[in-house]
Amino acid sequence: MRIVVINHVTLDGVMQGPGRSDEDTRDGFAHGGWAAERAGDDAITRAWGRRLTASSGYLLGRRTYQDVLGHWNNTPDNPFRDALNNAPKYVVSNTLTEPLPWPNSTLLSGDIPAAVAELKRTPGNDLHIMGSGALIQSLSPLGLIDEYLLCIHPLVLGAGRRLFTNGFGPITFTLADATTTATGVIIAIYRPHPRPEPASEDNDLRLEY
Question: Are 3 and 127 in contact (CB under 8 A)?
Answer without folding.
Answer: yes
